Amino acid sequence: MERRQHRRVAARVKGLVRANSHEVEGETIDLSRSGARIESSLVVEPGTQISVKLVIPGDDTPIVIEQAQVQWAVDRTFGVRFLKMSAQELDELEQLIDESIALDEGRES
Description:
By secondary structure, the chain is of the alpha+beta class. The chain has one helix at 87-108, and strands at residues 9-10, 14-19, 22-32, 35-40, 49-54, 63-74, 77-84.
């Protein structure tokens, strides 16, 4: 049974993930307005609080999720739930998701 509240889209977005004082590159595999699946060399455990910066091609300012919590981790992939971001960051994230949905629908037709 699907427990997600928001539609999750396949979106490979490069960025940075930080836990404690360690910041490393990462890439989303899929994305929703409330969380993401991320591939990264950062070693995290469920419950760990991290921050996420998503670098959008062609945009000078990354989308910054100030607080996210790791929900699960397997090898180099982990799922996060977004806990805290500004309204502007949420708007930009929703726009990115809408663009990803439009691209997917364009490929299908």
